[in-house]
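User: Run a structure prediction on this.
Assistant: Running it now.
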Amino acid sequence: MRYWRRLSLTFFFLFLAVSAHGGGSIKTDINGLPLHWEEEVIYNPDGGGLKNTNPAYNHEAALAIIEDAFDTWFEVLGENPGLRVLQGPSLPGSGGDIDKNNFGDFFGVGTEACYDNNLDTPCLNPILFDADGEIIDALFGECQKFSILGFAGFDDIEDGSGDPTLTVVKRGQALFSGACIAPSEVKAGCGGCRRVLTDSEIRTIITHEIGHLLGMDHAQVNPESFLDCVRNGACPPEVAGDLPTMFPILVNGAAMLDLHADDAAYFERLYGRPELNHCSVSGTVFASDGLTQARGVEVVARNADSAQSTLDAIAFVSGAQAPKLNNFSQRQGNCKSDCGAFKITGLLPGQTYRLCAQPILPQFTGGSSIEPVDPPFQGVSLICPPDLTVSCTCSNGTCEQFTGKHLVTGIDPNDIDKGGDEPQIVDSGAESGGGCSLMPQRSRIFPSSHSR
């Protein structure tokens, strides 16, 4: 049996007022089905602290924050989650800490041992605490630790047949930097931290990256609220709760630690049964001719109550779960069918929602991309047809599932990439791969004997 190995990584960047820098799965298989863990994740934490010079972020405190982050996500699923998470032995195993001198022994290596023909062979799932940020600098270049706050991702394997039952997530990894935690690091030739992270921001970063580790992609949902934050140098209180935890960057003044409705809806979609307690709405996004399907358009179901329209808002990017021509390209035309399809879950009983189509902001490319199209498709303007609404009702454990709710946009069909005989685009490094890459340039991610 032949397996392909791919690594998806996502990074969290720091956003400040002076740097104007829809939720879904971080990766799908060739048939467009979301990839996620099955039954159990056993993670292996670093034996050191997130910030060894700050008792509030020593080893025990860091472990507690990691556990809190997992709990935040699993509270969505209630008493019977479809996944268990357990803490395994700490690394390196003989006591001590993992730093720039020994991280290569544990991080991004060892996949040959567990990605064999036996799908039950266990893998190491390291979560590292880069207390001084030097691991990040070793991976991505000098001074990067002052802008990259953390990253996470997982590996998957498949037999090449496209059979979704033969695609399995087996190995994940995450790293968190302590460089901008008080006392912040200083390094000759680097600009340093633009500000010291608050405790809430540290916990937000970790919760965000644990979301990636569990299969969550970035989410935009409320771009106007983000732009309002940019214009003001920080989020005004009235929009602080509008940005989801899985927003691509850490925004000054945003309350991103608590899960947004969009975060909760998609996590339940990955690991729960949303149809038991929530309604859904599905349809297709079309170009102006009403025939050509448009991939890469964010569709949002917003609560019709203006007071809740940004807080109770759930997004899905059209074509994010379309069957693909290959697993490597983020071109708009990399789809076989259902290129404009969307399905939004998590609608609350007793609430009415209005459907809108909107572009993904052009900033969210490369290091901040949102699946499935990168760079974002910019041929659509915001539309919210007044007659395109749904009212969620549930009865005796059955909730209404709305279908055929199509959106005809003003997109010129000639502007849509139709795909066709698209070449496979393979990453430059043997360890890097498809899915959501958050670096402006794809490169080798981990130093190892077979990737350099």
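Helices lie at 59-74, 111-114, 134-140, 199-213, 223-232, 261-271.
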